[in-house]
Amino acid sequence: MANCSARRMNALKPGLLALVIGLSSNMAAFADGEIPVLDDPWRVYIGIFQANVNSKVNINGEIVPPGPGLDLEDLLGVEDSKVVAWGGVSWRFARRHTLEFEYFALNRDASLSDTFTPPIQIGDFFIEAGEVSTSYDTSVGRLTYGFSMLRSERSDLQLKAGLHVASLKANFGLAGAICDPTTTPTTPPGCPVARSATENEDVSAPLPHLGLSYAYAITPTMAINLAALGFAVELDDIDGSIIELDADLVWQPWRNVGLGLGLRYFETDVESKGSELNGAFNFSYFGPSLYVQATF
Questions:
Q1: CATH superfamily, domain at 35-110+137-168+206-295
Q2: Domain ranges of the chain
Q3: How many CB atoms lie within 10 A of CB 93?
C-alpha cells in the first residue's frame, strides 16, 4: 500500500509542479502590474449553458382575426430546458476600446397528439383534435463596442453599444380535425377530420443595444465580469426589444488559459406592424454557463 501511494504521489508531482509554477508566474505578473484576464488584447471563449426557456408565438392569419399567442412549452410540449453551445471573441484594440462578438443557436422540436379544449388557433387554422408538430429555431448573434470610461489596474467600467441580430423561426404541422376559411364550418366546433395543414413564420430582427459592463480582478488569477444590455426600437414596421444580463466568475490559473462560470439571462420581443413578420415572437432564457477561455 505504501509503495502504491508513493507511486501515485510521484505521478502527480509533475502536474502539481506545473500548477504551482503557473500560479507563481501569475502572481509575478500581477506584481508587475499585468493581469492577463483584464489586459490581454484577445479573449476567445467557448462553452455550454443550460437554457431554461420560455417562448410564445403568435401567427396572424390573412382572414381570421388574430387569436391568443401559443405558449410553446406549456401548450405544445416543446422542451423548456436544453444544454446548448455558445462562444465568442473580444479584441481590445486600444487601451479604452474593445470589440466583442458572441453567438449561440437553440433548435427545438416537439409533437403532441390530443383533443384540444379550447381548439388551438394558428394563423387561419383551428385544430380541435389530432396532432401538432412544432419546430422552433432560434439563433442570436451580438456585436458590441465597449469604451472604457473608468479603467484602473484591477477594474474596467465600460459603456457598451452594438447590435443583436435575432433569427426566430417557427413551423407548425397540423393533422386531424381542422377548420379554416375554406371549410364548413369555418370555425369550431365540428371541424372536418382527416385534414392537414402547415403554418410558419420567421423573422431576422436587427436590434440595437446600449448598456454597461464592469470587470474587477479579485486576485491576479480571478475576476468577476458583469454586464447589462437593453433597448427598444421600431425598425421597418417591426417593434422589438431586448434585455441581456450576464454575470461571470473567471479563474485563470495559467498564463493564457482559464475557466469561467456564469449566469445568463436574455429576452427578446419582436412584433409586426404589417412587415415581413405577420405576428409576434417572445423568447427568453435563463441559466448557468460553463466555459473555457484563452487570452493572448
A1: OMPT-like (2.40.128.90)
A2: 1-32, 35-110+137-168+206-295
A3: 10
Q: Which residue has the cell 423561426?
A: 169
Residues 194 and 127: their CA atoms lie apart, in Å, by 11
Give the pTM.
Answer: 0.84
Residue matched to cell numbers 392537414: 196
**Contact, 184 vs 225, CB < 8 A?**
no
Adjacent-strand bridge partners of 185: none
CA–CA separation, 9 and 2 (whole Å): 11
C-alpha 186/C-alpha 203 separation (Å) is: 29
- Cα 283 to Cα 57, 120, 194, 222, 244: the distances in Å are 9, 20, 33, 33, 12
SS (H, E, C) 94-159: ECCEEEEEEEEEEEEEEEEEEEEEEEEEEECEEEEEEEEEEEEEEEEEEEEEEEEEEECCCEEEEE
**pLDDT of amino acid 14:** 53
Residue 77 Ramachandran class (φ > 0 left, ψ -120 to 50 alpha, else beta): left
Interatomic CA distance for residues 7 and 5, integer angstroms: 5
* Grid cell at residue 135: 419546430
DSSP for 49-112, written as a single string: EEEEEEEEEEEB-SSSPP-PPEETTTTT---SEEEEEEEEEEEEEETTEEEEEEEEEEEEEEEE
Instruction: For residue 180, give the 3-state DSSP assignment.
Output: coil
- Residue-wise pLDDT tens digits, 205-245: 888 999 999 999 999 999 999 999 999 987 667 788 999 99
